[in-house]
Specification:
The complex is a heterotrimer of chains A (about 375), B (about 350) and C (about 300). With about 375 residues, chain A is an alpha/beta fold. Chain A has 13 helices and twelve strands. Chain C is mainly α. Classes of the chains: A alpha/beta (about 375), B alpha/beta (about 350), C mainly alpha (about 300). Chains A and B meet through α8, α9, α10 and α11 of A and α6, α7 and α9 of B.
């Protein structure tokens, strides 16, 4: 079964580069709503390497959360339909896996924490039990071993690994500590990949700093690779090794965080950075003209083109393919490619047979 | 004349525990807060959840009754006034809330929403109302085509503009902005901040700006008051407070705010512990349990705010104490966090 | 659209009105579509409309209008359903079909009037109690508690027993025992809404408290109230029929379905048609209201799939 692989932006494999843990290739997704068909993802390309933190940054509606859910296969069929693309985890295409196989994968290989820890935890069970349940679901072993693993999980997220904590209920924790509990639950089975969807948005800024530090610690000490989904550029800048900027359903720029934020290539990234109030007075703030497009009837060609200050003629009819403009730094933009002197093709539409094969593989 | 003067404001709430559970708990939402606001300026109240900044705003708007202290608006003590007189005076202070959707009645059209303050306080005819509403909408960048639609048909940013237009309807002198952009995307936030700035210059509005995002505050505010657990830790000209903070909490807040510059990573420090509950606040200085520089006196005695230059600081530490030491006081942190 | 010219034609005045109310018009159109998706609700609506037509035009529809109103015809007693009397005749020789048709009037009048009065009393009270809270809330809630503590039918019976059996007294009795439910319902909504920012904003603008309740709290409480009303109308019909059944409501020779069941109960084995058709009529009408209530809930309840 083939999968679309535009490899112009993937790094050439050399001995020094870390192994690729997760790669999303040209993922396209749509779902049905009352008003029509929402083309939520329009060709998402991502790469996550072992032990690195990748930030998925964008404003509301850009599709970052949906991408995270799609990776874990948490989207409801048939309302949500993946029309093409591949999600390669350690060489396996997750989209071809059955529900049962994905269920084994979740929690053990890939885990997720969400924005609202209170909604993610069952209020009538003690947190220790909830963590223990996850462990026992994925591993064989005695009750005692699971119990010990639970304590280890609690310790790894900076919570006291004692009976008192084990027996507490979710509502007895503060917001930040609840989020730690969720992370303990997510990492209890030693997942090498954690997807964190806006984990600190609901938290105070000093607590947020604690959680972000924890994410860094998990990366540093336990080697957990992470996809950090956030709309806060500062959070991404301080925590991530690489970031992918999303707009209206696709990744417009991806690369090392310092490169992308300090030497941005895509007009949206440039504009977004200039909107940030950091270090600017209100009179100096820049804004992006226009509004986020309606994904039921998105603009043709590059979805950002109606708001782009550097729009060219091609942009309204063709969608740009990602090209590499620097080491491990890729952009999807005709103007940026031209500026960098790189030849760029339009992104081609997915083949008909790819769509069919995914439907077969994706259904249980 | 000072537009708004708050002196020793305290707001305590009683949580009723019912007849059978003994004495009631008291939430010390706000304790002994004082500040002034001049016409046409912006004062920001900054802090995390539970610090009381929203309660202070509500007390200023008389949505909540102060337990003690005074709120003087345009030279007159607001709390002492009754019913009609108070309402009339309060026309000059309006509010914009955080969530654009829940601050607008979902069943009302934009016209009804923006004209409501006018209908409640003036006797304008239908045509005059419509004209005024249109000119208000124009000020915030909306138009006739929006007049008869309902909030759910608009984006968050547009709803916030409607709320701003409504707040301006009575020509107020003061607008209380309670986290006006926290629920908005970055690019939308930028537009709203630019709009607010422009309106301030054009109409000479004073803003009481409540926020938790320090970057936003820095771009908007002339003076700032940092609050923690109901009290003011530090206040003064924003530029000074940001460049030379004198209170350990301000330092922690500044350090925790993630900067979008990845190369500034080395300065992100972490403050341990959680924000305590306002029901049983710590004795002495309320920040002392989390303060890396606490001294024995901090546990016993509340540090009365004292002036340092053009600022007020509520801290027992000597004025020349080097707070950047906070940088090295990070026990147990992973060594390679900064790179 | 800020036109003030006095020479506006009717056409443009109409289109102007349309523009001003486009939000409501769009919403009504959308709601109608959602409502009509529920087939049962549509069936219920049709039944209700037919019943109303039946009640209004009874003199023209009923084959024996005089008998419908109570005149007896002792020559034709106990006739089984046949060509002249599609539903047969009762113990007084009156055409059952005509009595059914005329009998539709009372349940409809009772249920609509009673529900309207209950809503007019209960809803504002609930809004005031919920919005103001404190002492007012306590007082109102304790009063409703007292009324709710009585089983409503017994309370109604007691009332009617005191005041004397008649349709009017049945209505009073039901109103008295039923209003607390709406107060409670609306009070709950009011409590949850009073903290909403748009309510606080209204207060900041200087809008009077009562106006705040009227304009901001009550319209948003309408949804649950309307759904409850349609469901309750059915129950009111049943309650009124029950009271008539035990002789406390409509008095003979008035045609009323509950009364007809009562009259037919002695003959249930031999002349089953006397009471059965009336029972069926009640059943169908109440079911129709329940279906419509479900359909309305789909429209009005924000939590159901939209």
């Amino acid at each position: 079964m083939s999968s679309a692989t535009p490899s112009t932006h993937l790094p050439a494999c050399d001995a020094g580069a870390p192994a690729e843990l997760l790669a999303v290739h040209d993922l396209r997704l749509q779902f049905r709503s009352m008003r029509g068909l929402v083309k939520a993802l329009d060709g998402v390309d991502l790469t996550l390497h072992d032990g690195e933190i990748l930030g998925l940054v964008g404003e509301s509606g850009c599709g970052k959360t949906i991408t995270g859910l799609a990776i874990l296969g948490l989207l409801q069929r048939p309302q949500a339909e993946i029309t093409s693309g591949a999600i390669m985890y350690r060489g396996d295409d997750l989209l071809t896996k059955s529900d049962a196989q994905m269920q084994k994968l979740r929690g053990r290989d890939i885990s997720m924490v969400f924005q609202d820890p209170l909604a993610s935890l069952n209020p009538v069970f003690a947190v220790g039990k909830q963590i223990e349940d996850v462990i026992r679901l994925h591993t064989r072993g005695s009750r005692r071993e699971a119990r010990e693993a639970t304590y280890r999980a609690l310790a790894s997220v900076g919570l006291p690994a004692d009976k008192d904590t084990f027996k507490r209920y979710p509502h007895q924790f503060s917001g930040g500590m609840r989020q730690r509990v969720c992370m303990a639950m997510a990492l209890a089975c030693g997942s090498p990949l954690l997807i964190a969807d806006e984990p600190t948005t609901a938290l105070d800024v000093t607590i947020q700093a604690q959680i972000l530090n924890l994410l860094l610690k998990l990366r540093g000490e336990l080697g957990v690779a992470q996809i950090l989904i956030t709309h806060n550029v500062g959070v991404a800048a301080q925590t991530c090794d690489r970031i992918a900027v999303m707009y209206a359903g696709s990744v417009v720029e991806e690369g090392p965080v310092g490169d992308v934020l300090n030497r941005p290539h895509h007009p949206y990234t440039i504009a977004l950075y200039e909107c940030l109030p950091h270090g600017r007075t209100a009179t100096d703030l820049q804004t992006i003209p226009g509004t986020v497009p309606d994904l039921i009837d998105p603009p043709a060609g590059c979805r950002f083109h109606p708001r782009c200050t550097r729009v060219m003629e091609r942009c309204s009819t063709e969608k740009p393919q990602p090209v590499s403009v620097a080491e491990r730094h890729s952009v999807s933009c005709f103007w940026a490619a031209e500026k960098a002197g790189i030849q760029i093709d339009a992104r081609r539409a997915p083949q008909a047979d790819e769509g069919a094969s995914h439907e077969d593989g994706a259904s249980a | 004349m000072t537009l708004l003067q708050v002196d020793g404001l305290s707001v305590h709430f009683r949580i009723r525990r019912g007849l059978l559970k003994g004495s009631d708990d008291v939430v010390h939402a706000v304790d002994d807060v004082s500040f002034t606001l001049e016409p046409g300026e912006t004062l920001a109240l900054v802090g995390e959840s539970g610090c009381g900044k929203s309660t202070v705003a509500r007390a200023v708007l008389q949505l909540v009754r102060p337990t003690s202290g005074s709120v003087s608006f345009m030279g007159r003590d607001v709390a002492g006034m009754k019913g009609g007189a108070r309402r009339r005076m309060l026309r000059d202070a309006q509010v914009v809330f955080q969530d654009p959707y829940s601050s607008l009645n979902p069943r009302m059209t934009v016209h009804s929403l923006v004209s409501e303050p006018l209908r409640a306080n003036t006797k304008l005819g239908a045509q005059e109302l419509e004209d005024r509403v249109l000119s208000l909408l124009e000020m915030v960048g909306l138009g006739t085509q929006h007049l008869w639609r309902r909030p759910h048909e608009f984006s968050g940013g547009q709803c916030q503009r409607i709320a701003i237009a409504r707040a301006l309807a009575l020509d107020p002198k003061l607008v209380v902005l309670d986290e006006p952009t926290s629920a908005l995307d970055v690019s939308v936030q930028a537009r709203i901040l630019v709009l607010l700035d422009e309106l301030q210059r054009r109409l000479g509005l004073a803003y009481l700006f409540i926020a938790h995002d320090l970057a936003v505050v820095q771009s908007m505010a002339k003076s700032i008051a940092v609050m923690y657990l109901g009290q003011v830790a530090e206040q003064g000209p924003a530029a000074e407070v940001f460049s030379e903070p004198r209170h350990p909490y301000t330092v922690a807040l500044l350090n925790s705010s993630p900067s979008p510059d990845p190369e500034a990573r080395a300065t992100m420090r972490v403050l341990e512990g959680d924000v305590p509950s306002a029901v049983r606040p710590p004795a002495g200085c309320r920040f002392h349990p989390r303060c890396p520089f606490r001294m024995p006196i901090c546990e016993r005695e509340y540090p009365a705010p004292h002036g340092v230059g053009s600022r007020m600081v509520a801290c027992h530490l000597p004025d020349d104490f080097d707070l950047t030491q906070l940088g090295s006081a990070r026990a147990g942190e992973v060594a390679d966090v900064a790179h | 659209m800020a036109t003030s010219s006095a020479s506006m034609t009717t056409n443009s005045r109409w289109s102007d009105w349309r523009v001003r109310h486009q939000a409501s018009l769009d919403e009504t159109r959308y709601n109608t579509r959602v409502f009509f998706k529920d087939k049962l609700a549509v069936v219920g609506l049709v039944i209700i409309l037919l019943t109303i037509i039946m009640a209004v035009f009874a003199p023209y529809i009923a084959p024996y209008p005089a008998q419908g109103q109570g005149e007896s015809n002792l020559h034709a007693r106990f006739e089984a359903p046949n060509a002249q009397h599609w539903m047969g005749t009762d113990n007084q020789g009156r055409d059952i079909l005509s009595r059914i048709i005329y009998g539709a009037r009372i349940p409809l009048i009772i249920s609509f009037t009673v529900t309207a009065v209950i809503v007019i009393i209960g809803v504002p009270l609930g809004g005031i109690a919920g919005y103001y809270g404190g002492r007012i809330d306590e007082v109102v809630m304790r009063i409703t508690d007292v009324f709710l503590a009585f089983p409503s039918l017994i309370l109604a019976i007691t009332f009617v027993a005191f005041l004397g059996p008649s349709i009017r007294n049945v209505m009073i009795a039901i109103v008295v025992s039923w209003w607390p439910w709406y107060t409670r319902l609306v009070r709950g909504v009011a409590v949850s809404l009073r903290e909403r920012p748009y309510v606080e904003a209204a207060r900041t603008m200087g809008v009077h408290n009562l106006l705040v309740i009227w304009r901001h709290i009550l319209p948003n409480a309408l949804g649950p109230v309307i759904v409850q009303m349609t469901l309750d109308i059915g129950t009111v019909i049943l309650a009124a029929a029950a009271l008539s059944f035990i002789g406390l409501g409509a008095q003979p020779p008035t045609a009323e379905w509950g009364l007809m069941i009562s009259e037919g109960k002695d003959y249930i084995l031999q002349q089953w048609w006397i009471g059965t058709f009336a029972g069926l009529a009640i059943f169908i009408l109440v079911l129709a209201f329940n279906f419509v209530g479900d359909g309305l809930r789909d429209v009005l309840d924000p939590r159901s799939k939209r």
